[in-house]
Amino acid sequence: MSSPNLHPMLNVAVKAARAAGAIINRAALDIEAVRVSQKQVNDFVTEVDHASERAVIDTLLGAYPGHGILAEESGTEHGAQDSDYVWIIDPLDGTTNFIHGFPVYCVSIALAVKGKVEHAVIYDPTRNDLFTATRGRGAFMNERRIRVSKRTRLNECLISTGFPFRTGDNFKQYLAIMADLMPRAAGLRRPGAAALDLAYVAAGFSDAFFETGLNIWDVAAGSLLVTEAGGLIGNFTGEPDFLDQRECLAGSPRIYGQLVPLLAKYSKFASVDDKFAASERVRAVDPSAGSVYARSTVHAATAEAEASADAAAAAPPPRKLTRLRREESPATPVQGDAAAE
């Protein structure tokens, strides 16, 4: 049902999200009958993803045929290719939860105008919870205004995240992050649907959220909800232009400010010194770990190249200088230092 208080484009997005939610709820009545395929290791797609995406796209393009579409399953094959208006769609965020009957998943729809998200809808069909936002008009849950949490002390906060699950993800780095955060926070949760995690930050149900490896359709709608609810969102170093960076941190302003210094060293945008510190932290948590960092946020080959470069720059020179000081006269190491530089 549309609301006269909503922007017309947001009303259409709500209609599309509810249509997709109806498909998801019908399928949830008989999960065993749902056909499941695997895009990659631990990354699933179902016929429900495709059906709900079609329902969303048909609804949006029925109202706005000149708009563009960026959808998780079909990419940009639908809609206008050169429009300033682009709908960013995740038809079923939390597919792995859905196929196991674990009721934490949602439909996520955002409208970006010239690259900036202006409208957002996240719909949880299991609870019939509807989160909406329009830039400059605030964020709402079931038509009631929502705000981020007022907590200011990290040790009182509930933080949500997403664990790495793909081949090549840096599991040991996540162990180090958890080792940094768990003693400082009241709790760490992994619900399994990033869009809903962000909606919950906006509503104040959790105080912050962070994850790497996310795509734009995972975070576009949630990002507007968070900022319209008074929160902050960016990458691990606190930079706000994060949508395409596969790295996300969101929270109330005070908690966001406390998390950035803890997570910044694990960012792919961290300085060389910070990345070295992250590697040292990973090794402190797990002595068998190597010095590779942030593999879940970049292509594996890039991460390997960065790790090799850091290892070559950081480890060999001290060992070489030590040998020179043992073998040469006191004057020689100065030359050795110059050569090494």
Automatic annotation (TrEMBL):
Enzyme nomenclature, EC number: 3.1.3.25
Lineage top rank: taxon: Bacteria
Gene3D superfamilies, per the entry: 3.40.190.80, Fructose-1,6-Bisphosphatase, subunit A, domain 1
Region Disordered, residue ranges: 306-341
Keyword Zinc: no
Molecular functions (GO terms): inositol monophosphate phosphatase activity
Essential cofactor(s): Mg(2+)
InterPro entries attached to this UniProt entry: IMPase, Inositol_monoP_metal-BS, Inositol_monophosphatase-like, Inositol_monophosphatase_CS, Inositol_monophosphatase_SuhB
Catalytic activity: a myo-inositol phosphate + H2O = myo-inositol + phosphate
UniProt keyword list: Hydrolase, Magnesium, Metal-binding
Homology family: Belongs to the inositol monophosphatase superfamily.
Name of the protein this chain belongs to: Inositol-1-monophosphatase
